[in-house]
Fold these 2 entries.
Entry 1:
Amino acid sequence: MPYEGFSLELASPPPPDRPLSELTPEEQGEKGAEMIIGMMTSCPGKSAISGVAGFGLGGVFGLFMASMSYDTPLHTPQVAGSTQGGKLIVDLPFKEQMRVAWKDMYTRAWSSAKNFGYIGLIYAGVECCVESTRGKSDHWNGLSAGCLTGGGLAYKSGPQAAAIGCASFAAFSAAIDLYMNSENGKPPKNDFDE
């Protein structure tokens, strides 16, 4: 006997194929959710989401790495295009140091964001196409996508660079897949939670 106030209702059938204006608000919501989920699970949707996420992550990474280059005066480069005539950054007035540092941080963050976004977009698109073509979802999809992405990004530098790019991206993809799937195994024998 079910608990009081609790009823088991089967999920409602999908909204009928009627014009949107004839659907109830609940049916409109369900239809909208189906459309969004369908877009997000399509290959172009997955690619776009990965590209945007890669762009954001790359921007943060680039900003962090750029900010680390100004930690000591020993590692500061000479300022090109400075109004002070190419002095070391530590020899510039404070306002000029800040202007140069912020401009450099912006440039590096933007460059890193574009690169990460581009790689995320290409990798996710290739992986989705490989998965759709094979009709399976396993680790070979990630390996294939890593190889095709790495080789494709390095092909202009010659066949040796394309082979190295293929191998390194495939190895990185395999390592990420192993890490992400490490929790999917059988629980340890000393796990007494039930």
Entry 2:
Amino acid sequence: MSSGPAIILVRPQLSENIGTAARAMLNNGLTDLRLVAPKPDWLSDRAIAAASGADRVVLGAKIFDTTAEAVADLNRVWATTARNRFMVKPVDTPRTAAAAMLDLTAQGVKFGVLFGPERTGLENDDIVQADTVVTVPLNPDYSSLNLAQCVLLIAYEWYQAQGPELPERHMTKGAADIATKEKLEGFFQHLERELDECGFLRIADKRPVMVRNIRNLFQRAHLTGQEVQTLHGIVHELVTYRHRKGQGTT
């Protein structure tokens, strides 16, 4: 993945929020963390604990006295805000911002995103450093986000804009775990035999369609060999239970 946007936390108030923001960054391949005027105890055990393995992002954070210094080497800057600041600036969503950032990456342009203090958000003097405002479209009656959530939304859209490979649709050990058609056919015959026996498939003219529907249902599941064996066991136990009931035993 390319380096992506610098994440700039302006006057963060709680060290654990720095840690959780770092965690959100690393989840999406971002490592350039910049802090503007953090509190003296920002690098505390709480920050490292909250980072939950993203220690290197926290420990590698760059410290600046002012927002202007933090963005000095960047060519483009976005500022996150949910409020109307009465400034004439373009407005992006996280998704449209990510698409614009991807275009800048191809041009070799450096860029970053500003995030304000947890209680108040960015001040207008911070936002004036930015080219574009980014606002998350949420429920207008309740659109409150904590710092890490906001960082995660921006970072996630950036990560997705690069088209990461999707994971396998099923979490199996490998193709060898998927049941063979022979094993599936054996299960289908077992199941259909018992369904005939109990009368479920008793309507002759509907039987072919019902059998196809049942088979298609299990085919869509991409069953593993172990799962087919489990299904055999389920059918067997149901039949055994029915026979015991028929004999009046418990």
